[in-house]
Records
---
Amino acid sequence: MTRSPLLSLMLVGFSGSGGSSRRLCLPLLALVLALLLLSGNAGAWEIEPTESSAQQEAAASSPSSMEEELELRRRMMTHPEQPEIYLELADIQVSRSATDEALTMLAGSSRRFLGSGEPKKAVMLLSKAVELRPEDPELQLLLGKAHTQNRDFEAAEGPLRKALELGSQDPSALVFLGAILWESGRMEEAEPVYRQAIEATGRAHMPLSQLGRLLLWQGQYQEATELLREAAQRSPRDVGTLFDLAEALRGSNQIEEAIATYRRVVLLAPNLNKAHYGLAILLARQGDREGSKAEFEIYNHLILAAEESNRMAEIEEGEVDRAGLMLRQGQVEEAIAHLDSLEETVEVLLAKAQAYRAAGELEASVESLQRAVVLDPSRQDVRQMLTSLRMEMAQSR
Amino acid sequence: MIERRARPRWWWSSLMVGGLLVVSTKASPAQQDACRGTALTEAADETGILFVHDRGETGNFYNPETMGSGVAWFDYDGDGWLDCYLVQSGPFPPPAEGRAAATNQMFRNTGDGGFEDVTARTGAGEMGYGQGVLGADFDGDRMPDIYLANWGVDRLLMNRGDGTYEDRTTESGIEVEGASGWSSGAALGDADRDGDLDLYLVIYVEHDPENEPFCLHPSTGERWYCGPSPFEPKMDIFFRNQGGAVFEDETLEAGFETANGKGLGVLFVDLNDDQWPDVYVANDMTFNLLFVNKGDGTFEDLSLMSGVAVSRDGMPEAGMGVAVGDVDGDGDADLAVANFDVQTNTLYINQGDFFFEDNSAASGFGAASFNYVGFGLVMADFNRDGNMDFFNGTGHTVEISPRANVYYEQPDVLLLGDGMGNFSEPDCPLPNQRPSVSRGVAYADYDNDGDPDVGIQRSGRAFSLLRNDTRAGSWLGLRLWSDTPNSEGVGAVVSLRTSKGVQKRWVIAGSSYQSSSDIRVLFGFDKDAKIHEVEILWQSGKVQQIHQPPLESYLTVREPL
């Protein structure tokens, strides 16, 4: 059956393990968020404090709170991954009546956490922000999006509705609300929300394609075709929309146009296995055995390759997680020994770096990160960790 | 030859003597109306089927602990009343010498609405880590035998005919490597139409508890059960019957070389009316498989081409239970598969020539399962309106679902058909039903009152028996009887012609998830429908017609010589 809104945005097609839904589909959510956060109204909460401005701000406070604030900012530099530091800092800022600065810092940091796929941390910060200023529609919207990325749809609904109630002009509030209602299985409630979003955006691509997809999911192929056709006109290279349009055309028995649309999709995204499948099925129905066979072969090849690579990735991820759990339980040596027994990949090396760091062996930790950079020079996150660790070592010296 | 089975004595006496009590436990006419004729009541306790599944939870997150077990309905003692066989699992891994206490259990139908535990008396209490069960006559002596698909060595228990069973695993030839791994379910069909029944065994995955993959829960960060992805698939096994329930592994010779999925559900059914049974297998996140019988007892894999391997949009799904029947009244067999939540269950409509259309969306069949993880799936006419309905046992695999408002314990789903391929839930909830963790599901008219009752195995919980007390419509039941080794008429296609149209049933042995249902044929229809005839197309090719059959009873119909 056609995917739900967030799942269906998966442009890479088959994810293997995700199928059993026993894993999350965060990449999809990240994609949705990227699309919507970029288009969303960042509002007043974009300015991030620099070290020099922080020093100026802290100078206005009492000597003890100034010291405390400076120390927190130093810790933010070395441990940017710890949301507790941001919360502590926000408390100090609020205590010196700098609530706007606290909100700017919380919103900016939460956006970074969302960008790096850490929605729980974003939720922590945004919950604090909303507590400080509950009547701000942009903060409510951001919190709703963070809950959505965290796949906590029940928690997301309240802030999203609140943002709309408070007069948020950001149409992504409606699109997100529609998506979480759908994800929760409340399709009949999602439909009017999407229709409202279409009107609010002047028939923008995103709500058009989402409602089209919802109707496709419900088997209402005729209207889905109309909406998706319009969405495709607005964004002619959007592979997800084109694929859905092909599916809707197939459902409404417009076979020739469906075939042409599938062909366009596989041209734009040759590895999108499900488009090859749709094309193969229709060619078979048309009696084009050779064409169908060729498409099935591509589909089969892509699926099986994805399945196997996914299987291996999941096994590796599991073993890294196993070491992570050992670390959390204080079994540092066991964790290092376990990681030593695994094939050296970037993820294994990252885990090793973490384990060595926990063991206080910073040089070994740096070495692991360096090897990870060599294995995959494009990994900016690894480079950042390396820089951060080196700074930490320099400071401790 | 037709032998009419009279309505059971208790049925009359219950009306005359215990009528008030019976009426008080049944749904009122108003309730039945809201339920569109269905009237299901929890009856496990009152019938005496007291069974609690032990999943053998160890804290080590062994995947088999999530899979539950099956239920089979068959008449082991030949008294005309369907008995109930329930598969036990834990502990895991099973000790080499077998469990000390819990075993599979056999419950004998006493014919008065109750059951008695006859496990010890029958010797049917096998002690492996149980998964699936198939109760059917393997050797043609008209006494149902029991195939047990286990994690570990499978077992074949043969009915001696005196109310006891003997373990004939070794003699039957099923002790091959694959059948000592993790098998999940089994089905019988006369693949080569030589008169005896061949066996298809679905194997789930390669599994070694010493090397259980490690997975973390995405929300809690604690260890939890892995899904199927980290496990390697394993080949299913096709056993050809050499006569007398002695089997040979002919998986490759018969054309099943691509049967290398993560199998959980299987059935034999003739999908193109050529009288040669085809095989359909539901796999967990690998392609479902359709093996088309080439007309000589060997098979060709048409899974992808036919459209039944994946969802409509080309995604492999977590196939668990399978069901077959004619949902749209066009006379051919449609297929349905229970899947994971969000994927939704899938309904494949037979378009002829081995083309199927996934009509889950437009039919309403899929949407009802959006928030549920489907396991056991059966198709029957629960409200006797002449249309096929579905019952789906649901329940998550893990205690804390990664999706909000999706829970471990889930409500089972009853979907009523309109005879044109569309489905909807009745307006009333299933009575006396709390959400649970359902796995194996099988139906049987255990009280011979002409409607399908449902047995549901619950993972780590008590067995549930939903007695159907519908008063809607009328009915006709058939028990097929053949003097061939296929004594129960497996593979026969039975058509009922009435003034309201034609209904068709396929006699199958083994389906759903880890389970096997009542092998008898049951038709429901409007009270004002005029019954013309029943036609039976036996697997042998013989055609038999019964004009104006007697209604509201089970007829035993013997295959013509």
---
Amino acid sequence: MAETRINCLYDNCPIPLLKAMQQLKKMSVGDTLVIETDHSCAMVNFIEWTQKNSIPCEIVEVDNGEWEIILRKVK
Amino acid sequence: MQTLERRIVKQKKDQRPVFLLVLTLAVLLTLNLAAVNSRLALFWIFGLAFGFVLQKSRFCFAAALRDPFITGSTSLLRAVILALILMTITFPLIQYYGLIIGNGELLGFVRPVGIHTAAGGFLFGFGMVIAGGCATGTLMRVGEGFSMQMIALGGFLIGTLWGAWDYPRWETVFIKNSPTIHLPDILGWSGAVLLQIVTLGAIFYLAKKYDERNNIML
């Protein structure tokens, strides 16, 4: 049940998503991945991707214009 | 879908006073513009509305043209093609109306087409992907407060001004010698509209096929 954080602040679309995809491959089932981003468009990307792949995903606005996208590897 | 644990959330700044201040300034500017020229006020309101729609819909032209190459997804590209099909139907009506009832001038930019069109497209495309947004996308995200794109906007302004400075030279060297093609002159209005819709429909179908084969997000 490890937790990995990746820093995607100031990264453009679709880099947060690509980073998350890479990181998720390295992780084992049950691990949590936290993506820190300030790019509002990443939200749309992540919602589309996680829904298509049924990955549990939660988005929290931790500060004005800063989000944490929390994913869990389930398969 | 299982829920994930709660996170610590910082106390956020209340942005409503800033919103009210900006709204007041926008309304004052509208009234000022309306006093000078009602068309200017209309443009201003249209610009604000367009920005609002763009931000809420997250309609990103950069992503539409970039995602097919990076993630293999063409869902946004197909949305753009659909918008182009709609415009193919409505814009000729506006042009036709302008020709028949208006002052007889053709509306819109019917400009010479040639190798410079493709070269410009490639240049803009590369820059757009690196900067992370086209003109509208960059402006929309600057308005949102995405700091990285404020730098992109600076570069955009420098590039645009430089382009405008050098434009007369490009005009005489490349653009003037290229042919100007206006499809309705060759095929008639209905023929041109039909040809364009069929072509766009074919591209839409190919984009769908491409998505099914290449999308890494699935």
---
Amino acid sequence: MIVIGILITLSGFVISVLSLALQSNAARLGVVLLGLAVSLFGIIGVLNRAYLKNAIWKKG
Amino acid sequence: MKRRLSLCVAVLCFAPLGFAQTPATTPAAPAAAAPTPKPITDADVAAAPVPSADARAKGDPDGALTGTASDIAVSDAKKGVTISDLVNQVGQDKIAINFVWTLITGFLVMFMQAGFAIVETGLCRAKNANHTMMMNFMVYGVGMLAYWLIGFAIQMGGVGAVANLGGTPPLNAEHVITLFGKPFGIFGQNGVFLVHRGTYDVAVMVLFLFQMVFMDTALTIVTGAAAERWKYAAFIVSSFLMGAFTYPLFANWAWGGGWLANLGANFNLGKGYCDFAGSGVVHAVGGMTALAVSMIIGPRIGKYERSGKSNAILAHDIVIVLTGCFILAFGWFGFNPGSTLGASSNGSLRIGSIAVNTMLAGMAGSFGAMLYMWLRYHKPDASMSGNGLLAGLVAITAPSGFVNPVGAVIIGVIAGILVCISVEFVDRVMHVDDPVGAISVHGTNGLWGVLSIGLFADGKSNYGGSWNGVTGSVTGLFYGDNGGQLIAQLIGIVTLVGFVFTLSFVFNLLIDWLVGQRVGAKSELEGLDLPEMGALGYPEFELKAEM
């Protein structure tokens, strides 16, 4: 899960760089925001959740 | 009657003759032609009066005799002062002013280390005071070592000419790749050990000092988020990697001639990624790394109940926390205005505006946080008010050179409110423990500062007629930009969130797998001072082990 989370987070960055291949600013904006959402999902939705599963405060 | 009438007629008839007899004015002689300017010669310059030796020997109480033509550096003693000497002196004075400015402001930023140290120590428990202070103390040395060895070369090795410092010509080797048909600067290559390939250079030394203290600010942010449970040895390795690679890489992209700064020149996105003094480069890099380390290391014992409810772990000395905030605010007068890298030419006289923007945003941030906490929890919380001040300062760091005072206040107020909301989110939703709020102060508000340029830059600044190689002034959406600047800032933000966080996470995951990042439970409960440092920070206090 951690490796998947790392890859998802990094792919958000890659998506935003790929926006530079587009010509219109509106399209670039959309793709960059998509990349930001993907990276945030990777951090909050995947990586953080993976750590919370085994959190110290959940143990006996 | 007839006689009088005749007399009147005669007067009336002959009066005009009187006027007619007024001799006509002689036409003015043509103005003498202006004398042709005589060019100044070396002889004129050499003959400039200087105080006599006798006059100087009597002392100079009012300063009228000190600083004269006799102080001009002479290249040929036989010829005396020449025009060439004068011109060279002017050029050297301009660079000297800029050197002194950059160095003095760099010294102020260095002093911020003391501010961070006591803010973090005060926000932690007394049983960890020695450990927390030692992390903040040694991060200065660890970071500087890493930066001297390789970090500066990666960041600035290809920055090219820094005009305000006289050109820095040895910093001319940037590793570039091609993407989408455009050059993407990735990292610099000159400057290892500060002697490599001609970088033993007066201007490079000034640049190194100034950039180094910024780098150390980023590193010290992480120590706050991971305090009270971070192994000291793991902290040293983690900080070294951050100073050698993580920070310099992003800093190259933003400030060292790299691809982010060139988004304007290459892809017509405003003036490229702009970050005047480092909301992104320094604070968000620190905040993202702090988030990565805090997630890996886990929360302090007793921070969360099994239900997930968060327990407040109180600061042990709010007095030094708020004193530390003042030290940081003072140091920030070096952080932001110093980023002009000069006080002479190329728009450097904006240093006053930048300093005022910095002050106003910090003030607004403290008000925003204090009022939010007062309304929500019915008390003006001291530690959050301090964090609000810092959040405002962090947020204004990037836009300080590009916005007006009204923009600065708006940015600061939003930062103050945002830091409170972010602290709650990180703590109660993400369940990531951050004893000092570093993730929210520096990470969240670092990103806000980066974004705010794309909105509030007013297009009135002028730093030599261009920025990042694009003619014109940095302008945001609210001042007529077409959105390109905002997109460039957003790309910077995704780079921080998606790349910098990932790189920091991977480095620290490796450290955790190899040596372990977190101390044992017994050490944590006892307090890290004795097990990790061998001495208590407050040996005369009666400290208690607590959950």
